[in-house]
Amino acid sequence: MSFKNVAITLLLALGAVQANAAVLTLGDMANDGSYSSDCTFWCVARYQQVYKASALPSGAIGIDQVSFFASPNNGSSWNGTSTWRMTLSTTTKAVGGLSATFDGNVGADAKVFDTETFSGPNSFGSLISFNGQFNYDASMGNLLVDIVRISGSAQGVGVEANYLPAGVFDRAYAFSSDVTAEGVNQNYGNRTQFRYGAPVVTQAVPEPASIALLGLGLAGLVGSRRKSKRA
Which helix (H) or strand (E) holds 108? Predict the structure, then answer.
């Protein structure tokens, strides 16, 4: 298969994941329809949220979008300059069992999922989305979402949060440190929407230069065989 055909195949595969994507939302409103509004993007330097594996789809999936729901009464707009990096990993930490040392919660398969700089306001309930690719298997452990403000000040739109349903997620956060949490294991977290499909298998694609060298090698081999036949 040529380099071009491999690239096209990969693009088609990614498109198929998007086309067949499913959506799962974790985090409920209270029985009276009320909610809490959290200042995750308005006040913190680092924020981690762990999600119980049994609340996520069973088997291997490919997550391509993680979103939170805007609640502008706790942060009404983005400054357009601050940048947040989201990393996903499979963690051994239990819901309610996060360490106050942030890095101690991160799984061995940690992968930078997306880096975003947002601008302008968000209407209530609109999505604040990070887009990337992470293969996750619930049989291997819980899911950890790790958000770090890597530049700028803590100014952003508030997000919907709640204690419900109990035991499904929990969090650790710090206002000024990206090393040690100031709040941890509160049976509380942000409502989160995951978009997912089949896991994406990464194929090794040869570099164009490597393909050219391979072509020259094959040409030399053919030439040597022709000489052998004439001899």
Answer: none
What whole-number distance in Å separates Cα of residue 86 and Cα of residue 172? 14
Q: Interior CA angle at 171 toward 167 and 175, to 5°? A: 160
Domains of the chain: 3-201 (2.60.120)
The residue count of the chain comes to 231
Measure the CA–CA gap between 134 and 71, rounded to whole angstroms: 27
Query: Exposed, middle or buried, 93 (CB in 10 Å: 0-12/13-18/19+)?
Result: buried
C-alpha dist (Å) from residue 126 to 100, 156, 157, 178:
31, 14, 11, 28
**Secondary structure of residue 105 in the 3-state scheme:** helix
Tokens for 167?
């035991």
Contact 26, 191 (CB under 8 A): yes
pTM equals 0.80
What sections of 26-145 are H helices per DSSP? 40-43
Record the tokens describing residue 165, joined without a space.
């349903």
CB 207 within 8 Å of CB 87: no
Q: Which amino acid is at 93?
A: K
- For 11-67, how does the pLDDT look when each residue is reduced to its tens digit (9 = 90+)? 444 444 455 799 999 998 655 555 688 999 999 999 999 999 999 999 999 999 999
